[in-house]
Amino acid sequence: MDHREAYRSYDPSPYYRERGWVIGGGSVGGKGKGLAFAHESLLEDGLGCEIRLPEITLAVGTHGFEEFERINGIFPLVDEIPYDELERKILDSPLPPSISRELDRVLDTLTGPLAVRSSSLLEDDIELSFAGKYATRFVANLGDRSSRLAELERAIKSVFASTYNPAAREYQRKHKIPLGQEKMAVLIQPLQGKRRGDLFYPEMAITAFSCVFRRPSPRIDKNDGVIRLCFGMGTHTVGRSFARTFYLTNPQLRPEGGNAEQIYLYAQKDFDYVDMDQGLFMTSSLIDGLSRIERYHKMAPAFVEWYDDGMLYWLHTDRSNLRMPMPCFSFTDLPRRCHGFFDRTKRMLAFFEGAMGFPVDVEAVYESDEDLLTLVQLRPLASYMEFGHVDIPDDVPEERVVLKGNRMVTNHVRKGIRRLVYVDPDLYGESGDFAEVARAVGVVNQELEGERYILVGPGRWGSTNPTLGVPVDYSEISNCGCMVEVGIPKRGMIPELSYGTHFFLDLDVDEVLYLPVIEGEHENLFSRGWFEGRPFEPGGHPAVRIYEGVFDVYLDGEDEIGVVFDMS
User: Alpha-carbon distance 315 to 317, whole Å?
Assistant: First the structure.
């Protein structure tokens, strides 16, 4: 049996049962499978002494989910009431006594902050990832026993409810998964990190991938892997926020080159943590938290720099001569100061890819003081198909070039697309009603069911921060065939040039092409004249337009060029 078949047939149940870690019985789901496989693989290899796993991972099995639905009459309501009402019903319903009794005993063992994660039957599958579709909840685990138990139970029910959220339902529908086939298990783990004063967080959180499907340069070897890293809780690495990307072919290389202004624009500037006084998940700006970071993190000079007037300065620079210094998490000196971390991560990715037989996707945290790398999640990297060599036509008149970009593209061609859906950057930025724009895009997406269209908009599609891009969720763009992110530097709207977020995993699984275009940059073209001079249909909001025609998309991943032509 080859490695792929070994992972497909791997049964994680004995791993959890032997340790007494299953609550409620049934399957522990895809995420639970990945962790058990990682642990047992590491036990057989010397790499196990270099990588730590959570001390305990409890699983509320799928039988618990099914029992919860049965005793509370949940499933018949799924298509009868809106999701917000369904979610309230689930949160207000009691867990089965068999689960509550076990959770009460769990609190004797797990006394610090907790991560409560989804682990459905189909999640982290070889063909489908469901990345980011279901909930993860952080539990401070503070107060008296009754309060702690109530908080934990609510987190579990919140994960149960996410089985039916609109993004998950749309993903299931698009991939022809019948309603009711998906079942939810829940993992309960000690939250990885440290308490620093009244805050709890890991120093650094990473997502890492053993293959690189989108490269900023042909010099990057696709098989060397890539890391997406942030300071604090890992929400920045999996969402569409700013985080640092390291390509393991050469961790010193960055897509922005040595341009200090670009480095600052793309740098993380806030971080997430659990407030242990209030028991809340919160965000702090770096400038507000800098004195604390300097106090608790000896490695701070390796990852924090000052930006001022087009220059970057080391953290301990005398700032009296700087005009308006602003700090950012640049991670500039991290490859030199933590060289072993990058080497170990590269070995870890290669090891797990060999053990699983597939490219892999991992989440982990790192504490530099102890040089401690802790694995949080392992799963197969969602399948991706890439064309062979692509030749972009050189005989198409210049006026037919609608969009052109020169980075982060793969080899692909998609021709004869009939519609282009466009969010006007100026109208979007001035309107302020960002959510209404996103909902209007969602309506257009629904109307174009069964049709692959081109989606063009400013900044980052799916950003949780609407000033960075249109805050759509997966269900509102699920039918698009090519996504274009237009960077408008003067508005601070910058595309996400790094591979690795949940959003990008969706693109890969659903074969959605991706093209970033930066207005004003060399070899980039955003033809405002075409968009202003071409007739269009309104899209339900003044900022949303629908253009009809015949559009061809060519992406040349070798020379890093992507073009959208109007062939009408």
Answer: 6
